[in-house]
Every structure is written in structure tokens, then in C-alpha cells.
Design brief:
Helix content is 10%, strand content 41%. The chain has 119 residues and is mainly beta. The chain has a 6-stranded antiparallel β-sheet with strand order 4-5-3-2-1-6. The chain has a two-stranded antiparallel sheet with strand order 7-8. A hairpin with an 8-residue loop joins strand 2 and strand 3. The termini are far apart.
Length: 119
């Protein structure tokens, strides 16, 4: 299983305990224990994006790179450390420009190299 930054993964994530299969964006490679950081996503999207939200490319019937067929938003403040065993399915890949936007927003409040919030 190849997990690289920008890979769209499907896993059980749940804000406020509402766990369901959701898209998540890998932000780093797994460490030796198989742990890595993801940003959670949702296809239930608001009309107007929040400051930490980025819309992902999609297209019907399916985007050629992301493999998404419906509007999906990633929340750059919804970060979670997960394990490779948590991955239900591997999806498409983000374009480098979109991954750069996500990493830039994430890095304002989370140090990906240290895998901890910025103080």
C-alpha cells in the first residue's frame, strides 16, 4: 500500500463522534510504526468555504487524477494521526498545486515534520 503526501484515502473519521467513511488527505508518509497525519474531508460542503477549507477537484463521471465524482472539501484544521491499518481504500492523487495549498494552510498551525501542533 503506497501512501504518499496528497493521496486521497478513505477511512472512518468522525468529528464530534460522528464516525463514517470519509475522504482524508495523507499529509506525510507513514513512519516505521505505520502512523501518519491526515486532513479530514467531507462531501457535505457549505455554499461558502471557511478559512481552513479547500475544495478538491472533481468531475463527472470521475476526475482523472483525484477520482472524485462529487464536490469534496478538505478541512486543513481537522488533522488526525492515523495508522495504515485504518485505511479502508486508496483513492486518487491531488494535483501538486492543491496539495501545496493544503500544506501551506496546515503548516500555519501544525508542524508536519515534528507531527505536533505549533505553539
Amino acid at each position: 500500500m503506497s501512501i504518499e503526501p496528497g493521496r486521497i484515502l478513505w477511512m472512518e473519521l468522525g468529528p464530534r463522534g460522528q464516525f463514517k467513511k470519509r475522504p482524508a488527505i495523507a499529509l506525510c508518509r507513514p513512519n516505521a510504526a505505520g502512523n501518519f497525519v491526515v486532513a479530514g474531508g467531507s462531501s457535505s460542503t457549505p455554499a461558502q468555504l471557511g478559512n481552513d477549507e479547500i475544495a478538491l477537484p472533481f468531475r463527472l463521471p470521475r476526475h482523472p487524477l483525484t477520482k472524485l465524482s462529487r464536490r469534496t472539501v478538505v478541512d486543513c484544521a481537522w488533522l488526525q494521526e492515523v495508522n495504515v491499518s485504518d485505511v479502508l481504500a486508496i483513492g486518487g492523487q491531488l494535483p501538486p498545486s492543491v496539495l501545496f495549498q493544503i500544506i501551506t494552510k496546515v503548516e500555519t498551525h501544525y508542524d508536519l515534520s515534528a507531527r505536533q501542533p505549533r505553539t
